Amino acid sequence: MTAPDADVVVVGSGPAGVSAAWPLAEAGLRVLLLDASEPGAGPGLAPARHRADPDHWKTRFGADLAAVEAPPDVSPKFGTPRARAARAGFPDRIGLSTAGFFAAGSLGRGGLSTIWGALATPFTAAERADLPFPAAELDAAYARVARRIGLGPPAPPSSPAARLVLARHASRPGRTGVRLEPAPNAVLDAPLDGRQACNLCGLCLYGCDRGSIYASDLELPALTRRPNFAYRPGHLVRAVEADGAGHRLRVETRGGAVTVTAPRVVLAAGTIATTGLALARLGLFDQPVRLLSNPAAAAAFLVPRLVGSDRPAGGLGLGQVFYRAGDAAGVLYGADTLPLDMLAGRLPVGRPFALRMARALAPALLLATCYRPGAQSRNTLTVSRADNATRLSIRGERTAEATASLTADLSRLGRALRRAGALALPGSTALLEPGADAHYAGTLPMGGGGPAATSADGALARVPGLYIADGAALPTLPATHPTLTIMANADRIGRALARRARSGEASR
């Protein structure tokens, strides 16, 4: 019998895959991490090089000016050339079609963490209530992940508009039920493992060449220094099949099809891709499963006191203020470092004037996102077989409940911000397309019933040795950004699997 290629194969180099891989590698297991990325991803953007480049407009808009025509009902971060490159090929290569749903995904090294908003906040006690394991386990995992990635206390906002609103809200909180606080971003304020502290250059969405913003690909060099860890990019996993007491992965590479074997496999390829592989392994074809996403909306707010202010030379191009309002949550961004094309497209004036107006007002503008719990989403994911190939399809629908809730939430936020000196900008509100939040969960829920459920430790029902470590395993999706919780859960799943493997449970 041929020896397995590893003790554990981890599929996916995003935050979940890397977080699961660490405890497995630290336990001394032979870990093989596969992802579909091609070697040699481009570097981040150096501010000096960017400003000296006469063609720097291509960084913001793309050589084909595609960013100018970016869809108006998705996040601005998806409109940059860097984001389009990270997402390139995702639907086609995994055989995905959608209807009424914006499917965000990446086959690149580090997954979507290379373009994420970096907000890293834990679930509240109420939001953890449906998780099928003790809260203390998650608290310990949060602490481990925070130490590993250099997550410290939230920094004060760099945006003058955000600073003013936060200060006035603290002095005049009122009874709006809205709580504002500095955004807890996964951005370094001190060097860590070769990464540099943030210098507030303002180019966050276009690529940080300092490694200040956490992305899971930044952890791969440290992992690969371990002799028991191997990383193979350019390996797109097409299927996970039974192989005696273990698993055989059918993998597509540039050099042709190969197989990889292991007694244990951890799927962490992102909720959509992971669900496709798991449902196909279970033989659950043409059986829709529920896909949770956060219904989302966006709006702009003007701080009149700052109209006419000079545009700052730099700043943080990520979230400035995090807020909660009942079971809704969201982020306020300073407009001075963000693409303004989508906002201009929603203003009730002609586009050329709208762009000039948005740019002139940018130092006084705050752009808000608002998220609702995933329970208010209505999406399904289905896996089918056609022409000897696996296909995925997602159908999304904006619900009346979510629309009414988002409208009420933005009104509530508007009242709180008015007390803090910011006014809602007429015509700026937009309901985002289902899926545009890029927060997906719940397809293979931990502790759930049914044929596609997983255990509290991520083990997939009826398939010993196959584990789910990304958002697909979360049984709930509150309004709080889920990435930090997904990483913490992947850490605890990897830790539990390492304990089993060391105790001799070969295929469990």
TrEMBL record:
Keywords: FAD, Flavoprotein, Oxidoreductase. InterPro entries: FAD-dep_OxRdtase, FAD/NAD-bd_sf, GMC_OxRtase_C, P2Ox-like. Pfam families: DAO (PF01266), GMC_oxred_C (PF05199). Its cofactor is FAD. It comes from the Bacteria. Transmembrane segments: none annotated. Belongs to the GMC oxidoreductase family. This is Glucose-methanol-choline oxidoreductase. It comes from Methylobacterium tardum.
